[in-house]
């Protein structure tokens, strides 16, 4: 083996050893993320609270639509009249040739409600981005220390995504449950026990799933830019930051 080949082999071996040293397993990343959330518990709760409110409102609107669809599928004229009196855009009598099942499938939230939901979710996303940027600022020295110890950019990125993912799942689940409960209570007050009797469990599960998925997705979306900023930060710049 020539001297050049030997040097190349040694360099390759060193690079492989360095890669093995700085790439931590997923379990360790998860452990560090959980500890970081515990240390910054109250700030995490502020971020989660905005997500809970936005997801709860989304879940509330979807649950209201599910209750109305269940009442409409029942085919009872008095329940249909109750929906019309509650403000749903329905004719007092079903259109000729249109079954209650088909009409219920087209029932959805009003355009006003949809715009309010979209705006609340956008405001929530902006709040998450702002909170995560502040978290990055507070953790300059921590990020710099990890990078000086050999942490790669993808490891820093993974930490922030894991933290946001866990917060998003918890906040979205709490918000979805809260919205469904309030939606059911409002339905019971407005339409009586028929609101629960005609409600489809599958529709309710779909509402929960959609709300949790939207909340978790918004949490991850809101942390992408702050996580990228933290990952690209040079160690010397991070260590210079004032506490």
TrEMBL record:
Keywords: Cell membrane, Membrane, Transmembrane, Transmembrane helix
ABC3 transporter permease C-terminal domain boundaries: 116-222
Regions crossing the membrane: 41-62, 115-135, 155-188, 208-231
Subcellular localization: Cell membrane
The organism's place on the tree of life at top rank: Bacteria
Statement: the UniProt record of this protein carries the keyword Cytoplasm: no
Lipid bilayer topology: Multi-pass membrane protein
GO terms, molecular function: transmembrane transporter activity
Membrane among keywords: yes
Pfam families to which the protein is assigned, alphabetical: FtsX
InterPro entries the UniProt entry points to: ABC3_permease_C, Macrolide_Exporter_MacB
GO (cellular component) term, any one: plasma membrane
Family: Belongs to the ABC-4 integral membrane protein family.
Protein's name according to its UniProt entry: ABC3 transporter permease C-terminal domain-containing protein
């Amino acid at each position: 083996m020539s001297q050049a080949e030997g040097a190349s082999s040694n360099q390759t071996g060193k690079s492989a050893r360095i890669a093995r040293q700085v790439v931590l397993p997923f379990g360790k990343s998860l452990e560090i993320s959980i500890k970081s959330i515990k240390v910054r518990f109250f700030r995490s709760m502020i971020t989660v609270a905005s997500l809970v409110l936005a997801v709860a409102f989304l879940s509330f609107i979807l649950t209201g639509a599910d209750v109305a669809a269940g009442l409409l599928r029942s085919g009872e004229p008095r329940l249909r009249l109750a929906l019309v009196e509650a403000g749903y855009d329905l004719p007092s009598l079903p259109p000729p040739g249109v079954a209650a099942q088909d009409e219920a499938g087209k029932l959805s939230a009003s355009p006003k409600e949809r715009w309010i939901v979209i705006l609340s979710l956008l405001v929530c996303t902006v709040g998450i981005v702002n909170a995560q940027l502040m978290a990055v600022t507070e953790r300059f020295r921590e990020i710099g220390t990890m990078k000086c110890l050999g942490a790669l950019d993808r490891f820093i990125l993974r930490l922030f995504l894991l933290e946001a993912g866990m917060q998003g799942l918890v906040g979205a689940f709490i918000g979805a449950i809260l919205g469904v409960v309030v939606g059911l209570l409002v339905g019971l007050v407005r339409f009586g026990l028929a609101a629960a009797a005609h409600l489809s469990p599958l529709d309710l599960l779909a509402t929960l799933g959609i709300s949790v998925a939207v909340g978790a997705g918004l949490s991850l979306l809101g942390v992408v830019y702050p996580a990228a900023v933290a990952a690209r930060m040079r160690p010397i710049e991070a260590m210079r930051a004032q506490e």
